Here is the input.
Amino acid sequence: MRTVIIGLDGVPFDLLRDLAESGVMPNTASVIADGAFRKMLSSIPEVSSVAWSSMITGKNPGEHGIYGFTDLFPKSYNMRFPNYNDLKAQPFWERWPGKSVIINVPSTYPVRHMRGAHISGFVSVDMQKSVYPSALLAELEQMDYRLDVDSQRAHASMDLFLTDLDRTLDARIKCYRYLWDSENWKTFMLVFTGTDRLMHFLWDAYEDKDHKYHKLLLRHFEKIDDVIGEIADQMNDDDLLVMLSDHGFERLDQDVYVNYVLRDSGFLRFKDSHKITLNTIAPGTKAFALDPARIYLNCKDKYPCGTVTQDQREDILAELEELFGMLQLDGRKVISQMHRKEQTYSGPFSENAPDLVLIPAGGFNLKAKPNAPVLAEKDIFTGKHTQDSAFLIVRGFADDSCVPETPSISRVVSIIENCHN
Amino acid sequence: MNVKAMDHLDRLENQSIFIIREAYSQFRKVAMLWSIGKDSTTLLWLVRKAFFGKIPFPVKEIYDFRDKYASQWELNLIVARNEDAVGRGMGPDKGKFACCNELKTVALKQAIAAHSFRALYLGIRRDEHGIRAKERFFSPRDEDFEWDYKNQPPELWDQYKIKAVAEEHLRVHPLLGWREIDVWEYVKRENIPVADLYFAKDGRRYRSIGCETCCMPVDSDADTLDKIVEELKVSKVSERSGRSQDKEDDYMMQKLRSLGYM
Here is the structure.
């Protein structure tokens, strides 16, 4: 009995259902027809680093320690970039028996020894540290394997970006085919991340059938669907096929800057108004935010200019909830949910958790951006992450009750384990 | 008198000694960071030359090589250690960043505070790393240890700003203009002792030495000073390729920005 997990980074439940029903993804449609297809909750916050870390460990951030793409060094306002070395819980491939092949899972860089083969995903920096075992490097070079599309290109030329995206996908497919045959695996996991990139830059091209890039966008999903068909055909009756996304997507109208709000209302102060970074936070600051919308109280003994004491904590959190609860733009509420640390995270690393995480309402994207000159802006991006509309498909399980009606991403590993029992 | 024209290494040596003496004349309370690597050992050599073999200030850091030359060169050696973090079991398994921060940065902060140092000599070079290329010979750090690289005193025509306000300390970088190959040619010319790890053994050697868990040897057959110099003339591999952490942050920031995550 083997397990195959296919990740479609950033693909929302509704979009996948639409593409399956409209004939763009016929193979996905037949997997859905034979399995359980659910809308899934992403992590809090709803970014890939936290979501995939929660998926592969089956734990919440309080247990695995990853709260975002960025974090702060202890007792400082200096930013750092947590990676796979900072993940405090074991991924499933280190716990499950047999060999695993793991391709392109975000936040698993740099790779380390494991049973099988592992090629890390976003953000992988150095190819040498992205591939285990290193003997695979030569094979991957032959395939012209790319760790990630160069998203910077989309800012200069969408055509160049799409060409690069397509080549990256082709190389990923070659890599999966090679490892599918060459390794004697029990678990195979392959994540497509080009989908997330398309959603960021071309959500409008998905919604608008007449958009210049509409067909190219569908073509990308068709290509992935071909792979899904190919994989489904090669599976045995007692194998388990799992498909999922790490978060959803929807149309983006405006970016809203959390630190701008905090600064404007006196919660956040800087030493020098010409030099605004987290490093120049001034005494008197009560709260500050890290991306995308993680608010930390400026606690005494925790930060260099920290003054907030345990007694003041409750009052400040209540003030913040009122402030963000009332926040409106163009007559619409900006924030849909607020999650307090104690109610959201549990485990040995929940100390490092943000005190309050904001989830934006439809159309709004939240960013920390300490030096934002305005409250809200529109960038070139047309799509934004959603927390409540990822998807999960499980095919090949004995009992429908194995898959809850509304699963969350940190439960996927235990759902798979239940299916096997 | 037989006067020989100054060569490239003489000019570098002259400039470095000038900077070392300038910093000492201004501050008196100066220390030097000694990592026992080739660069800071070369710096130590130059400091001894600058003060005619006597070191008028204390120096800091590790092991056999360290202890041998600390005693032979009569160094006033301070071993700075963040005892509190060591006691709590801090190590690379707690995360490399946390480890570096606690055991290096915090330990140094404590030592500077304990000894009231106003300036530190460091053996960094511009060609080591993109961010180091932005450095000054006299580089101020504020009370939080922050380096504001966008707001630094200009250093034009060898005019240096060597005053620091009370809450600052100055980092002094006498080797800033040296290249990796200059260091090795000078090590050879002056016969400066360096750690054995730099010389190839079983096809590998260290080009840059940091903490054990965070640096890796590179493939090399250079087991003598001459071979190291020859290797550097043709190598396309960067000196710090065996060091983790560095460069990767910049790359990650750019990737995250390109997707609008920051």
